[in-house]
Amino acid sequence: MTPDVTCIGANETVAEAARKMTELGVGSLPICGSDEKLKGMLTDRDIVVKVIGAGKDPAEVKAGALAQGEVVTVHADDTAEDVLRTMSRHKIRRLPVIDHHVLVGIVAQADVARALPDARVGDLVEDISS
User: Each residue of 55-91: b (16+ CB within 10 Å) or e?
Assistant: First the structure.
């Protein structure tokens, strides 16, 4: 898990999110509301496809407008099996980790690759990509 995750506020613009991603060297940011609760995840692909590719102005679109549905998360005390199962089932590469409704980190596919045996990583990549 990567701790100390930086959020983009739901009322901040997609342009601001892109700047944060560039500064931090990341491809996604959690979207947090004014109540500090997780509202969704914003990826670099979302910015390209849903904003720029759709002809929208990134300086006008709010990050919160791109949060869709219920956020898939794991709890800080979940096992590696729980994490793998959740990532596979939902076909996601980045999984927010919460502890009592507070975002405490992100588990990325790369974190899994560093922590688990090659066969398990291969299974996860295949599940997510299919």
Answer: eeebeebbbbbbbeeebbbbeeebeeeebbebbbeee
Instruction: Domain 1-70: give its CATH superfamily.
Output: CBS-domain (3.10.580.10)
From residue 51, give the alpha-carbon distance in Å to each of 5, 43, 66, 111.
Answer: 24, 11, 9, 28
Q: Look up the CATH number of domain 72-130.
A: 3.10.580.10
* Model confidence, pTM: 0.82
* Cβ–Cβ under 8 Å, residues 62 and 40: no
Instruction: Return d(Cα 100, Cα 120) in angstroms, integer.
Output: 29
* pLDDT recorded at residue 93: 85
CA separation, residue 67 to residues 6, 54, 70, 102 (Å): 16, 16, 9, 17
Would you kindly state where each structural domain of the chain is located, as residue ranges?
1-70, 72-130
97 near 74, Cβ under 8 Å? yes
Task: Note the pLDDT of residue 110.
Answer: 76
Q: Do domains 1-70 and 72-130 have the same CATH topology?
A: yes
